[in-house]
Amino acid sequence: MRANGARASPRAAPTHPRHKKHRAPSIRATRASAIGPSAKSTIDALNEKFAIPGSVTFENGRGDLPTALLTHKNGSTSRVYLFGATVTSWTQPSGDEVLYVRPDAAFDKTKPIGGGAPLCFPQFGPGAMQQHGFARNVDWEVIGTSADVNPDDPEPAVMMRLKPNEYTRAMWDEAFEATYEVTLRREKLKMELCVKNTNEQTSGKAIDFTAAIHTYIEVTDCANAGVFARGLSGKTYLDKNVDANDPPKKVQDSRDVFFGLDLVDRVYLDTEPETLLHVGSGAAVSVENTAGWTDTVIWNPHTNMKECYKSFCCVESAAVSRPVVVAPGKVWRAETNLTVIDVVSNDV
User: Fold this and answer.
1) Among the residues of the chain, which ranges form H helices?
2) What 3-state class would DSSP assign to 56?
3) Closest CA to 226 of 280, 264, 286, 275
4) How many CB atoms lie within 10 A of CB 36?
5) Do the beta carbons of residue 328 and residue 205 sit within 8 Å?
6) Which of 211, 226, 189, 227 is nearest to 313 (CA)?
7) CA Rg, the chain, in Å?
8) pLDDT for res 222
9) What whole-number distance in Å separates Cα of residue 63 and Cα of residue 86?
10) In the chain, N or C terminus with fewer CB closer than 10 Å?
11) How far apart are alpha carbons 315 and 330 in whole angstroms?
12) How many CA within 13 A on the CB side of residue 324?
C-alpha cells in the first residue's frame, strides 16, 4: 500500500449526505421495499432499486454472496458484503489495497468473514453469547444508497439494517434496530453504526452492549521495525495475552506498539480519537474514532495464524471498557474514519 497524498485534517463527517437516492432518513425510518440478500437473482432487484450509475452497484462476490461496490470518481473503491455488513476491501486510486482478508476466510455463511472490517455487536470478545456477538454472522438488508449532490466529488454510500430475528433472539432477546452505513469519501472510508432501543419510552427498559469494528489492515511485514501503532502512549490497557479471561491492567510506557515477537491482544481504555498504524511502506493508516467509540483494540495473532500473521495488524474502534447503555427510544451512534497518510511527507 502506498500513500495517497497529504493527510486530510481529521473531522467528523456529516451524519447524512446532502442528497439521497432510496435513502432512509434515519434509523427510525422503515422501508417496506427494502431488499435483503438471498439468491443470485436478488442482485438484479438490488440494482434496480438502489444502484447509482458510476457510484453504487451490486454484484455477487466470493461464494456468490451479494455485495455492494462503491466507486469514487477518483478511482478508489470499497466492497461491502451484505452477510455481516462486512467491508472486505478499500482500494486507493493507485489500486493498492488497505484492508486485509485472511486466506482462511469463509464465504459460505458457515462462519463470519475473516478479515476486512467485521462488526462485533452486541458483544465484543467471549461472553454469554458467541464470540463477538451475532452482527457479523447474519444477513443485513439494504435500505438505502446515496451519492453526494456535488457532481465533481460524489461520495457513494450504502446503508444496511439489522432487526431482531429468531437467530438473534436466541442469544440476545432485546428490542433493537441497527443500521450501518459505509461511505467512500475522496480520502477516507467512513463507517457509521447506529443502534436504536426500540422499547417504548414510557414503559420499556434500557439495553446495554459492547461493540467494535474489527479492522484488519494490510502491512508489509508485522515483524518489520517500520510496522507499529502510534498514539497510545501513556494509556492503560488490558493485556489479554497474559490472561484472556482476567487480563491485568498495564500502562503503555513507550511511544509505539510493535508486533512480530509475540501475540499482541490489548484493549486500550479511554483512548484519544486517532491511532496511526504505520504499515512499513512509507504510509500509515489513521483509524479515527470520530464519535461513540471510547477504546482502541490492538491485535495480531502471531504464530496462532502462521500462514498470514505477518501480513496484517488490527486496529479496532471499540466500546468495551464499559457497556453502552441506550435508553428506550434513544439511538447510540458510533463513527470510524480511515485515512491513508504519507508519513514520509508528513513526518508523523
Assistant:
1) 42-50, 166-169, 343-346
2) strand
3) 280
4) 17
5) yes
6) 227
7) 19
8) 97
9) 14
10) C
11) 28
12) 27
The region that residue 48 occupies, defined by phi over 0 for left and psi between -120 and 50 for alpha, beta otherwise, is: alpha
Residue with cell 466507486: 71
> What pLDDT was estimated at residue 1?
56
Amino acid identity for residue 266 in this structure: R
Mark the ranges of the chain whose per-residue pLDDT is less than 50: 2-34, 36-40
Give per-residue pLDDT as tens, 230-289.
999 999 999 999 998 899 999 999 999 999 999 999 999 999 999 999 999 999 999 999
Spatial CB neighbours of 261, under 8 Å, sequence gap ≥ 6: 223, 302
Specify the pLDDT at position 346.
63
Strand order in the sheet with 176-184: 20-21, 141-146, 157-162, 176-184, 188-197, 331-342, 283-291, 274-279, 227-230, 256-258
Count of Cβ atoms closer than 10 Å to residue 306 Cβ: 9
